[in-house]
């Protein structure tokens, strides 16, 4: 009885989370004439014309590539700086450990809308408007607090004696980080990287503000600009949304175990 | 190889003084042991020699040269940690070769050196394994190999045997002594186990609350303890401490009242008999513990505990009275207030 209740709960949560996705899936496969029928039940016939239209009617491939470059670049930068910061905080016993972490956390409290105008002026001043670099730098800086926090928590679990041994064996701090600490931080890096990647992949506000042309436009902005003068192409929007969800879906499936390891590190004694 | 000198070395963490003006010279090639209860500052002393911590005051010298400012990698010391601290993502061969790799040794030379050290430690068959696939004793040997492979000037060991079971501990103890004989490297050893310290060392320093209570060859420290702390720490079972009034004819120096001293008496120097003897204290038997080759009898005299060596053939029964016989020249007198040895 109790188990049945658990399953019912899981089912409800899953339905709550997956229903919009299912709706998108059904919409993307529905002939244009049936698009607005309610309730959104199964279509009478399947069509892939929306998927074709996404690639034919828009520079969608280019936008996907942009999104990959931006999210990937931001992730790499956030991991590089985040792991170095976490290493310094946990293993090199930087002074003011708690204060630094609190400040790092505080910087992520600003709502994006409050920072978007000054950042726009900054990006413009640097001549980076409508470039991928503008988005990479912005996302990396916003992802850093998250990266520092998760990685700090993770590196704290690695025994201090490992770092001491590395130093006695002849490592500089940088060598100890690269040769000993980072190879052992795989789960933490995977979890952090994935979180950063997803945030950057889905980001909309900055991408909308800092980009002007398809040269640097990412998928979320691109989809938002699908609607034409006279109609909203729901089918294409649904198809594009599903395509853009796919990479994240695959990444999460691949790294699922490591993410859980990374996020719960130290919660229970391993 | 190097001689290590401490000159007025102190280490403070915040307001806590862990080491208090340590003055000490460890000779070249010596096997030197710091022994003491946990928190006495012995591990901190090792981290200061290794360069993992800097002294708050004072100077540390290797062969006369100050090393205070040198990072661990520039001191040419090797260290074996209590947890071994093997690199889990490297094979045994990579672990042992790591210090050489960092020094830019060629791959071929690393291979030769690793093979040589592995042969000496009897771990040739394990070179391809990962640390997690090894037993405790094997990990210990790998950690030793990683430390010895580059023939450091100073070899530091921080409680290296405390994670091993009793039998393996004896085996590794002999191994350490053999390795020290073969390599002749100045070795600084830290342990809380006085027996280990006695068995291995050329000299021991008994540390207590950041100060050296006594320093010297193990037997001297055992036979001639400077104070009650050292007497209580060195020797097993621990020394008996009794009021002076139990001992007839005991004459403390004129300037100390009899109530101002306590008597230390090593259990090994006490023979327990079931019949009265001339120089013996009568005590109520509480416990008789046979350990195979000995029988330790625990008794009580006026509420004070005394342990002595009994006869296996004549074991006293708990609840009866036994006679704890001593030799007057084996008694140690200590000032009750300070613990200082009274001659």
Number of domains of chain A: 2
As a whole number of angstroms, the C-alpha radius of gyration of chain B is 24 Å
Output mean pLDDT of chain A.
86
Order of helices and strands of chain A: HHHHHHHHHHHH
Structural class of chain A: mainly alpha
* Total helical elements of chain A: 12
- Ranges of chain B where pLDDT stays below 50 over 5 or more residues in a row are none
Identify the CATH class of the largest domain in chain A: Mainly Alpha
> Low-confidence segments of chain A, ≥5 residues, pLDDT <50?
266-270
Tell me how many strands of chain A there are.
0
The CATH fourth-level homologous superfamily of the largest domain in chain B = P-loop containing nucleotide triphosphate hydrolases
CATH topology of the largest domain in chain A: MetI-like fold
Helix content of chain B: 10-25%
Order the strands across the largest sheet of chain B as they lie in space: 6-7-8-3-9-10
Structural class of chain B: alpha+beta
Oligomer: heterodimer
**DSSP summary, beta strand count of chain B:** 19
Distance between the termini of chain B: 39 Å
Give the full name of the CATH homologous superfamily of the largest domain in chain A.
MetI-like
Total count of domains of chain B: 2
């Amino acid at each position: 009885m109790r188990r049945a209740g658990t399953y019912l709960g899981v089912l409800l949560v899953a339905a709550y989370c997956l229903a919009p996705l299912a709706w998108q899936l059904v919409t993307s496969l529905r002939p244009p004439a049936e698009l607005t029928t309610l309730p959104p039940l199964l279509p009478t016939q399947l069509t892939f014309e929306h998927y074709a239209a996404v690639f034919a009617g828009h520079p969608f491939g280019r936008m996907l590539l942009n999104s990959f470059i931006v999210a990937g670049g931001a992730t790499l930068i956030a991991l590089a700086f985040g792991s170095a910061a976490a290493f310094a905080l946990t293993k090199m016993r930087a002074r003011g450990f708690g204060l630094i972490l609190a400040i790092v956390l505080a910087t992520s409290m600003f709502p994006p809308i409050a920072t978007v105008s000054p950042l726009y002026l900054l990006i413009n001043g640097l001549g980076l408007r409508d470039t991928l670099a503008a988005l990479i730098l912005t996302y990396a800086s916003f992802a850093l607090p998250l990266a520092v926090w998760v990685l700090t928590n993770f590196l704290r679990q690695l025994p201090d004696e490992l770092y001491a041994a590395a130093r006695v064996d002849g490592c500089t701090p940088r060598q100890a980080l690269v040769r000993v600490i980072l190879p052992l931080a795989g789960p933490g890096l995977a979890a952090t990287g994935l979180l950063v990647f997803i945030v950057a992949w889905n980001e909309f506000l900055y991408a909308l503000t800092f980009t002007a042309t398809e040269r640097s436009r990412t998928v979320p902005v691109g989809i938002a600009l699908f609607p034409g003068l006279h109609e909203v192409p729901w089918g294409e929007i649904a198809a594009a949304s599903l395509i853009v969800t796919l990479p994240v879906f695959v990444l999460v499936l691949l790294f699922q175990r490591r993410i859980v390891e990374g996020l719960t590190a130290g919660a229970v004694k391993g | 190889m190097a001689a290590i000198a401490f000159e007025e070395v102190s280490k403070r963490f915040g307001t806590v003084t862990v080491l208090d003006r340590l003055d000490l010279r460890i000779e070249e090639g010596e096997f030197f042991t710091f022994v003491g209860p946990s928190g006495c500052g012995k591990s901190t002393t090792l981290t200061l020699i290794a360069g993992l911590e800097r002294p708050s005051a004072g100077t540390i010298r290797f062969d006369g040269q100050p090393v205070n400012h040198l990072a661990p990698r520039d001191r040419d010391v090797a260290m074996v940690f209590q947890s071994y601290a093997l690199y889990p993502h490297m094979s045994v061969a990579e672990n042992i070769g790591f210090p050489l790799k960092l020094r830019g040794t060629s791959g071929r030379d690393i291979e030769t050196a690793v093979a040589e050290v592995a042969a000496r430690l009897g771990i040739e068959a394990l070179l391809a394994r990962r640390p997690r696939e090894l037993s405790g004793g094997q990990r210990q040997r790998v950690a030793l190999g990683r430390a010895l492979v580059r023939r450091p000037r100073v070899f530091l060991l921080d409680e290296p045997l405390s994670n091993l079971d009793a039998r393996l501990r004896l085996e590794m103890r002999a191994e350490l002594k053999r390795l020290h004989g073969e390599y002749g490297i100045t070795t600084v050893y830290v342990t809380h186990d006085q027996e280990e310290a006695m068995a291995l060392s050329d000299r021991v320093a008994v540390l207590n609350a950041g100060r050296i209570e006594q320093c010297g060859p193990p037997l001297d420290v055992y036979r001639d303890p400077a104070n009650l702390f050292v007497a209580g720490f060195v020797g097993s079972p621990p020394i008996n401490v009794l009021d002076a009034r139990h001992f007839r004819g005991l004459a403390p120096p004129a300037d100390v009242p009899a109530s101002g001293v306590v008597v230390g008496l090593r259990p090994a120097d006490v023979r327990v008999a079931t019949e009265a003897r001339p120089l013996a204290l009568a005590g109520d038997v509480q416990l008789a513990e046979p350990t195979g080759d000995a029988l330790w009898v625990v008794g009580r005299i006026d509420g004070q505990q005394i342990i002595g060596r009994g006869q296996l053939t004549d074991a006293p029964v708990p609840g009866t009275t036994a006679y704890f016989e001593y030799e007057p020249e084996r008694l140690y007198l200590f000032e009750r207030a300070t613990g200082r040895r009274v001659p």
